[in-house]
Amino acid sequence: MAPVLQSMRVERRRGFLLGLVAGAAIAVAIAALADALFGPFGSSGTVSDGRTTIEDNYFHRVGSGELDNASIQGMIDQLRHRYHDRFSHYLDPKSVGQFESETSGQFSGIGLTVIGVKGGGLRVASVFPGTPARKAGLERGDQIVAADGKSLRGRSKDASVALIRGTPGTTVALRVVPAGGGNASTLRVKRAEVRVPAVKGMIRHANGDKVAYVHFATFSEGAHGELRQAVDRLYRAGAQGLVLDLRGNGGGLLDEAVLSASVFLHKGQRVVSTRSRTQGDTDYDAVGDPVARKPIVVLVDHDTASAAEILTAALAEHHLATVVGTRTFGKGTFQQALDLPNGGALDLTIGRFFTANGSSTLNKGIVPDIHAADNPRTKNDDEALQRALAVVGGKLGGGR
Predict the structure, then answer these.
(1) How confident is the model at residue 20 (pLDDT cuts 50, 70, 90)?
(2) How far apart are CA 241 and CA 10, in angstroms?
(3) Measuring CA to CA, which residue among 178, 102, 105 is closest to residue 138?
(4) What is d(CA 160, CA 116) in angstroms, rounded to the nearest whole number?
(5) Mean pLDDT of 104-115
(6) Domains of the chain
(7) What is the pTM of this model?
(8) Stronger pLDDT, 366 or 168, i.e. the higher one
(9) Mean pLDDT over all residues of the chain?
(10) Contact, 376 vs 127, CB < 8 A?
(11) Distance in angstroms (rounded) separating the CA atoms of residues 198 and 180
């Protein structure tokens, strides 16, 4: 993810991230983080004493809640810096509701998934049909550099997304640099309740053959069922092959990745493995009942991440699909959502995942079998999709 999902926040669910197990409230999380970062001198007592001293002596009145938020954020910032971890985050109490909406497929916003840009700003990974963002003219690849007059430079992705999301019916003014380059312009977008369509499918043609084209946007709850229904419907309509478009798909829930892979893999075939210091090592296999075997191309780009990388690798490594596009994002880790006593939560990295053959995508991504990139300057063409269709057509017609 991110709607504004944020695309790179792949797999967030209250409890064990990626939807692995139910999580318990962690009342000692702050102390545990302090011990891990600062040793015995970073005990919960020291943190509490420091907070009390500030409250009693600082020349401005400061609430304990404000200091709690700053303290936890400081610990997370230190972890991110020390271990080069881009994905652990602290969610203050106001942000928890947004966090939970991201895996439900419904949220209040404008209808985008976005990627954080180094140094600040957001790059649009995908725009959902029928949403305020689509109506306003936002396009994949556009870069959002300010919201309501506030620059996004130096802000985290979460902080930037929070400026864009808001109450349905209100308006946000976005400063946008077009994907193809050029001068920034201001777009005014009215927020709304948005339902994220996980899957969009249609019949396309390649070398005279019918091909199923399925754009898979996010691994939210129930997405695997939408994927299965779309593939079944298009195969019944006569499709002889499939292009599965995962461009802009920043991930979602791990169980949805496993179930989505099960649409194509036989029961017992490995989908992904996870390794965690606290949760142990776990293998996840397909549960069976796959669709008919037909030529498949998986279409990816740099915004394909996490659960989407898991599905891509599973199909490629079991020799079911050819991967077309550009190198994927390279997520490779998973997080767990841990409740805190103040009503906030830690979205904390607790392990790594490995593809079906045991490889890690962390900071490497998946290199496609066939390189193909869309040119954002050709608004009415999609060169990468045309290449993917040609590859499927070659498999079906022997290049006729």
Answers:
(1) very low
(2) 28
(3) 178
(4) 9
(5) 76
(6) 107-195 (2.30.42.10), 199-332+351-397 (3.90.226.10)
(7) 0.76
(8) 366
(9) 84
(10) no
(11) 27
Contact 398, 209 (CB under 8 A): no
Question: Which of 10-24, 67-81, 363-377 is least confident?
Answer: 10-24
**133 burial type by CB count under 10 A (0-12 exposed, 13-18 middle, 19+ buried):** buried
Q: What is the mean pLDDT of residues 4-14?
A: 34
Chain center to CA of 109? 16
110 neighbors 172 (Cβ within 8 angstroms) = yes
Asked if the model's pLDDT at residue 22 lies above 60, the reply is: no
pLDDT of residue 17: 41
Helix axes 44-57, 29-38, angle to 10 degrees: 100
- The single-letter code of the amino acid at 116 is G
pLDDT in tens, 280-329: 999 999 998 999 999 999 999 998 999 999 999 999 999 999 999 999 99
Torsion, CA 367, CA 317, CA 17, CA 38, rounded to 10: -60
Q: How far apart are CA 99 and CA 81, in angstroms?
A: 23
Q: What mean pLDDT is predicted for residues 132-142?
A: 92
